[in-house]
Q: What sequence folds into this?
């Protein structure tokens, strides 16, 4: 098979001739990896539209301190991501984007920028451990990681949080490696500002997660050194003061506004609830993240698994010790917490990437180890399973085949097979660059074509379109049975939730333009209540689809009563 090694050598030499050139390439790669599907993917229930709707209500009310979903206080996360989303939507309105406040892609822009920043900051962080050539490859692998690609397209906290974590850990790595004389250069004078600036932003985005990651790493490394003196360049006094200046104004404002309820709910219910028991049906047993890993860190996960023996044998070396301190303590915490969500471990993936590349450079990935080639075949098996699920889902739900996706899936499988072939002939660097290509092809197959053709998943957008088709300028809308946050985001903050069919019928009997969505399981009850009323609404349409959260097929009738 044709070898890419000479081409990769020339390609890497060209891109790493300057940091600006490397960053420009990574920016273009990130856009290619993250933009497909950004504007076409429907609001993904339930977390994404909750964040977006809370931001929309900030814009509607002008209250940028309190966080609310309809009339309910949303005191789970700090305000940072809502402010970033509000800024993106405001910019969209200023640029004339039609109906900007219900365009979910505008709310996703902070996540897109956070994912791009994660890639670029991974390059910067990896430069503390690796030559430019391999730091570039590591950042490219991060751009290709499935989990980062998913978070780049969802309007919530985790892509921005990952960027904050990578920045803080990259700064911490420079201090540690300079202390152990493993760093070839002295950290810049502003290194401490990077560390504390990323920490401050991380506190506003998701509370204590970033300090937890670097705090556990610091504890492990300080125990190893039996000293905390190596932390002196981070200037903890001015750094903590910087964090207080950034975060205290909002924390004080929300405490005053809510009388302390924000902290009771965010810490007492949300954070401690995740520790005590699995929240919102997200419970999972210890070890689940290891299972998730082979899908969420695809396509490089198989090779990262092969680097484990290297990491164990070299665990006392300063570089490996730091990376293990970055990964292991936080990973164990996430595994111990009953609530399991795949994105929790995303801030640890750049360190796994660095370990993988250190193993590659130092001969720590053994192609001849028993099961190594079979493990490499996961590069093909994982996307093949996803392809089967998506094609089967298209056929099962919509009796359709995503024809446009099939050629791209085929190219992706060919690229995956070329990864295995390169690994078999010991072209490890070439195999990893082929992983990046395979990831891009999977992105192009899944987001613009395979997912987009799954019309049954787009229940809320189709209901919102049906409501607009009635022709009323500002209708009153009620839903019975179907209560997903995406419907609130797309139809309006005032969407009413009916507990019974009688209430939905009475709602339609009141003056003005009125629309009701009635799920089929409440149909008989609704029709009986409707029969007793003098005015009968018209049936606009019936929306059939699949609710991915409940895992159920739904049929929802749209009724309207217009004036005159």
A:
């Amino acid at each position: 098979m044709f070898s890419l090694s000479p081409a990769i050598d020339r390609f890497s030499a060209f891109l790493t001739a300057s940091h600006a050139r490397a960053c420009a390439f990574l920016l273009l790669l990130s856009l290619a990896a993250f933009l497909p599907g950004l504007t076409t993917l429907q609001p993904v229930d339930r977390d994404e539209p909750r964040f977006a709707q809370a931001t929309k209500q900030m814009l509607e009310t002008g209250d940028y301190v309190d966080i609310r979903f309809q009339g309910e206080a949303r005191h789970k996360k700090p305000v940072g991501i809502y402010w970033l989303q509000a800024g993106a939507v405001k910019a969209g309105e200023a640029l004339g984007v039609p109906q900007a406040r219900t365009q979910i892609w505008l709310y996703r822009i902070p996540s897109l920028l956070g994912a791009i920043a994660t890639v670029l900051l991974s390059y910067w962080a990896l430069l503390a451990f690796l030559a430019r050539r391999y730091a570039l490859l590591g950042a490219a692998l991060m751009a290709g990681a499935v989990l980062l690609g998913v978070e780049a397209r969802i309007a919530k906290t985790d892509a921005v949080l990952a960027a904050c974590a990578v920045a803080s850990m990259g700064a911490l790595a420079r201090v540690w490696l300079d202390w152990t004389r493993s760093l070839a250069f002295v950290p810049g004078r502003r290194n401490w500002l990077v560390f504390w600036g990323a920490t401050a932003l991380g506190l506003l985005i998701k509370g204590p997660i970033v300090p937890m990651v670097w705090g556990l790493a610091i504890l492990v490394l300080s125990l190893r050194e039996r000293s905390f003196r190596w932390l002196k360049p981070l200037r903890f006094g001015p750094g903590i003061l910087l964090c207080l200046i950034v975060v205290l104004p909002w924390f004080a404002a929300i405490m005053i506004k809510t009388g302390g309820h924000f902290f009771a709910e965010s810490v007492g219910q949300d954070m401690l609830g995740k520790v005590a028991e699995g929240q919102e049906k997200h419970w999972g047993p210890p070890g689940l993240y290891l299972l998730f890993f082979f899908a969420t860190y695809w396509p490089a996960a198989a090779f990262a698994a092969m680097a484990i023996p290297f990491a164990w044998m070299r665990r006392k070396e300063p570089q490996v010790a730091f990376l293990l301190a970055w990964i292991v303590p936080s990973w164990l915490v996430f595994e111990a917490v009953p609530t399991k969500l795949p994105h929790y471990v995303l801030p640890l993936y750049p360190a796994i990437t660095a370990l993988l590349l250190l193993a590659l450079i130092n001969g720590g990935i053994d192609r001849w180890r028993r099961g190594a080639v079979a493990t490499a075949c996961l590069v093909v098996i994982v996307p093949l399973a996803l392809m089967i699920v998506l094609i089967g889902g298209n056929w099962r739900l919509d009796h359709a085949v995503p024809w446009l996706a099939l050629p791209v899936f085929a190219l992706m499988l060919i690229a995956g097979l070329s990864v295995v072939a390169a690994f078999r002939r010991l072209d490890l660097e070439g195999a990893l660059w082929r992983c990046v290509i395979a990831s891009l092809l999977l992105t192009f197959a899944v987001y613009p074509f395979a997912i987009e053709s799954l019309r049954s998943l787009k229940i809320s957008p189709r209901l919102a379109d049906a409501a607009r088709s009635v022709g009323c300028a500002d209708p009153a809308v009620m839903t019975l049975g179907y209560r997903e946050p995406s419907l609130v985001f797309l139809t309006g903050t005032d969407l009413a939730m009916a507990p019974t069919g009688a209430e939905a019928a009475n709602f339609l009997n009141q003056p003005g333009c009125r629309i009701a969505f009635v799920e089929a399981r409440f149909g008989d009850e609704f029709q009986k209540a409707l029969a007793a009323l003098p005015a009968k609404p018209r049936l606009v349409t019936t929306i059939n689809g699949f609710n991915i959260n409940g895992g159920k097929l739904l049929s929802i009738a749209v009724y309207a009563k217009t004036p005159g």
In short: Residues 458-561 form a domain with the D-Maltodextrin-Binding Protein; domain 2 fold (CATH 3.40.190). The chain has three domains: 5-361, 384-455, 458-561.
